[in-house]
Amino acid sequence: MTTQQVTVSKTKSFMTVSMIELWERFGYYGMQALIVYFMIQRLGFEDSRANLVWGACAALIYVSPAIGGWIGDKVLGTKRTMIIGTFILSLGYALMTLPSENTWVLFFALGVVVVGNGMFKPNAGNLVRKIYEGDDSKIDSAFTIYYMAVNVGSTISMLLTPWVKDYVNEQYQNEFGWHAAFAVCCVGLLVGLANFFVMRHALEKYGSEPDKKPVDGRKLTLVLIGSVIAVGISALILQYQELARIFVYVAGIVVLAIFTHLIRSSEQHERAGLIAALVLIIQTVFFFIFYQQMSTSLALFALRNVDLNFTVFGSHLLTWSPAQFQALNPIWIMLLSPVLAFLYSKAGAKNKDLSIAAKFALGFAVVAIGFFVYGFAGNFAINGKTSAWIMIIGYGAYSLGELLVSGLGLAMIARYAPERMGGFMMGAYFVASGISQYLGGVVANFASIPKGMTNPLETLTVYTSLFNKLGIAAVVCTFIALAVLPLMRRLDKQHQGIQ
């Protein structure tokens, strides 16, 4: 094949994975936009419980890929495991359409989502890695565009599901709108599956060793039985907060211990890359604490202290529901992703690209700006309600930081992890992210509003105080990231010297 034909073939393969990722994220973020509101407004949870339940669920969702990556690498195959995960996810969203106020129904449905995500997420990312293996500048660019595909799906669903919920509730004067919105998430997954089966031939050359062999029925049965057990365990963890806390901390200790063992027992030429990956993963933990605020403290801030009307010079443009403000994050990322991908490719061609470690430091700095904007919002508030435009500005800075840190997290694994550890390393990255998602829920509870407090003037100071503290914390993370840059440069040179 000519170079041009190879490029076209890889692009088609990349688009196949990106499209199913887009629809999977459509389902996930459509659910995320509503889940904390659903627990507080529909099920009557207090802020503190809703934040911790969602924090624990997000942790499980991010921890589960550690197992799913191994299943894809060693047991069923990368592509097969990804498709099974998509089926399971669609089932989880289908269960959330059941109009029940029993918390166990919700927790079992979320448990199914946890298992499905664990099967899907690491294997989709690993396929992208395999398509562009060996080309660092292309990997950075590909994962940035891949991240944009994620946000196309999430933007549409975060705008759509709150509208569906409000429309159905108003039209029929009942609470079924919540469940109709979750049904939209399920339909999105089914569309993604249909699209994948149409385009699946583009991925024939890519996958792990088990993908090249017929399906082993015994292994498939064991995986499905294990999945059912995992759903039950996840539901228990969500119901009992102490279990959630123990699980998350134990997961962190286990992954750190395994990582330490891998570094000590790895080949000499692999060690520098593994140490570099560990340093960046630890930084990622801190970033995702900030990230988790979007669906917890920031979401509740939008509910209680943001004017939902967009106006220009006194003229009304449109009105959003509180949940739709979360869509500002993917909208900004879609606008910024092509710009960053272009800059990465152009800088890479001139050998002037910033290292991933430097991009992480810059990312923390702009996240700090975003939280200071939210903290400053109180100065523009009228009767405890701040302008919707403040949210746009804050999310802009926040989203640029996300692209520089989280958007390159997968690329970091692809660059530094030895191929034989690809699935586990992808899983380890998600475990670290999961731990910080739970910690993010804990942090959000510093702005937990008691049920009796309804005055916006009172709630405003609670939220802005937290956001200012988070801004200071992000500044500290920036300086730490800058301090380890010399170490990262040395490790990067040692790693590249073997390539």
UniProtKB/TrEMBL annotation:
Gene3D superfamilies, alphabetized: MFS general substrate transporter like domains (1.20.1250.20)
Annotated compartments: Cell membrane
Transmembrane feature ranges: 22-40, 52-72, 81-98, 104-120, 141-164, 176-199, 220-240, 246-263, 275-303, 323-344, 356-377, 389-414, 426-447, 467-488
Record keyword Heme present: no
Keywords, alphabetical: Cell membrane, Membrane, Peptide transport, Protein transport, Transmembrane, Transmembrane helix, Transport
CDD domains per the UniProt record, alphabetical: MFS_DtpA_like (cd17346)
Membrane topology category: Multi-pass membrane protein
Major facilitator superfamily (MFS) profile domain mapped to chain residues: 13-489
Pfam families cross-referenced by the UniProt entry: PTR2
Protein name from the UniProt record: MFS transporter
